[in-house]
Amino acid sequence: MLFAKGKAPFIFDKSRFVSDYSDTLNSSICSVIKADKIAELARQSGFCRRSSKLKPEAFIDTLVFNSIDHQISLQDCCDDLIRQSGKSLSKVGLHKRFNESGVEFMKLVLAEQMATRLAIRNHDTWQPFARVLITDSCKFCLPDEYKESYPGYGGAVTNPLMNIQYSFDLKNGDWENLELTKATKNDQSYSKRTACRIAKDDLHIRDLGYVTMAYLRGVTERKAFFLNRLQPKWKPVHKATGKVIDWSSLYERMRTNKQACFETEIVLGKGKKALECRLIVVPVAEQTWAERIRKAQKQAKSRGRELSEEYKQRCRFSVFITNVDPAIFNSNDVIELYRLRWQIELIFKSWKSLLNLHRVKPVKKERFECLLLARFIWILINWKIFRCLDDSIQKENREYACSHWKFFKQARLWAYALRMVMNHNITFEAWLGLFIFPIIKSLLIEPKKGKKASFCIVNDIFNPLS
């Protein structure tokens, strides 16, 4: 396929995609849904202790491919089971299967799907990083029936909240972690619990809510890398002079010299727990600064406090810290790379806007959790297809990439056909020819004027010569 789009012609070789990725996708996706693997996980979780009319693979199939846009009724599930497996099950019988063992079973299937990785990246690139991990959380309100299990921040007086902790590897395209937790378990507690997962040569890009001194020390002790914003309450000290940074003086100096960026070596903390790293400072527009002050004053007033002059001056900047060597990332690279953290926000948006993840009706708690986990299994299956498609496009075309949003918008429409692939009713190659290849052009990212697309940032920083 060859066409022009106001720049270099786009080339997509269908036969090459099939030869390069078909086996990878089949082994990564279909093998996890096989009956023997599902049966093993069902026994492990206690979901299947004896012979039953409801086979574990039928349970998975019905939930995964019928809960994409909304929570289906028990009768819908029973009807689907009859159509797909010929097994009749009463609503009461199915209702009983939504229990703690059922939830654990769904968690194991999701974990197995996450553990089966795609081998599609050239590991000689993106040096010196083994993984580039972006982590964030997504919250949404639940019906009042779930207050006890998922309390909000204000306890019984606020809406129940579901908190999803999510981490993915930008380099290899893998989901590294997904947890359904209470909103009362904040991001800092997540950092503490998951510190053991930090590996040598990882690069971690995280939102400010995750960042503590203990987290930063944990990253450096494990010979990994961090990139995040500076906590507003921290007082960085110039490594060379030992003096605390004066934000007011720095702003005046940068404005006088028309300096767009400032970098220095700093020390955070004191004594044996002190940490050395780079500080990169970028002034923000006056309008942005004024909006920051307005929001901060509103929050301070609600707590009976006032903003300090130092804090107001600190708000004039976007401030980043990292322990990556300047020879690897210069200041501009650091600023651009942090922008990639917003990719996870786009993923959350697609989960809510396209897949209605946040629309929950009051049903048995375990049924709600099973259906939510089933939706994530479906999302991950399609994520792997998206990653292979995007990888294939970028290998042949440096100026093009696949749009995550456009892909999942279409994925909802072909869910029934993908189910046929999983159940071996049509081949994966036939499915590609019917549902992917004819619309490949419409799945491309269309960069917004004046904004660099995320894949361009990645190419410019990690693969400048590709």
Automatic annotation (TrEMBL):
Transposase IS4-like domain spans which residues?
A: 129-378
- What is a GO molecular function of this protein? DNA binding
Q: Which family does it belong to?
A: Belongs to the transposase 11 family.
Against SUPFAM superfamilies, the record matches this protein to:
Ribonuclease H-like
> What is this protein's record name?
IS4 family transposase
Read off the lineage from the record. Answer: Bacteria, Pseudomonadati, Bacteroidota, Sphingobacteriia, Sphingobacteriales
The UniProt keyword set, sorted, is: DNA recombination, DNA-binding, Transposition
Pfam family membership, one? DDE_Tnp_1
Give the UniProt record's GO annotations in the biological process aspect.
DNA transposition
Q: Which organism is it from?
A: Mucilaginibacter celer
